[in-house]
Design goal:
The termini are far apart. It is built from 4 helices and 5 strands, in the order βααβββαβα. By secondary structure, it is α+β, with helices and mostly antiparallel strands. The radius of gyration is 18 Å and the shape is globular.
Length: 173
Amino acid sequence: MHPLFKIREKETPEIVELLESVTLGTNGAHYRHLDTAERITEADNPLFLSMERNNNVISNVTFCRRNSHWYVRYFAFSPKLQSTGLKKSKGTSLLKRELNDYFRSSLDGGNDHGKVESFYAYIDPDNEKSLWMSQTFGFEKAGEIATQTFSRINPKGSSRVRKSEDWKESKGL
């Protein structure tokens, strides 16, 4: 692996800083996760693959290792490296080469963290950059998940529901 790349099993403040700085979304709404610093500590058996230069994390892929099936949880680039539009480079950057090699060697059993049977990710179909990157690394569509937002301005009362001012309080529900 190229010396710019580091593999860790624990997040660093620099990784958290990168993840908190990233704006998600390509088309339509752009958003940021507000609880990344807390949620990253709850990741399921994480492995952090980062590209670092001058003590700065400039890209990161966080895998949640679930036996031999690894979930790609975070895939982030420094805002300085992000294009403003959907820019499909035809060349192979160091980042793409190293990630392709890592995916391939992991599937072949050639990494220090065990053989990987599959990598998977949940990708917003409206996020063109994420779709393009997943195709670049050989991911294939395996299924779809439908989500639905529901809201009521004046909900009916229920003894099973109560108002809370602190969203952290609901974590145990």
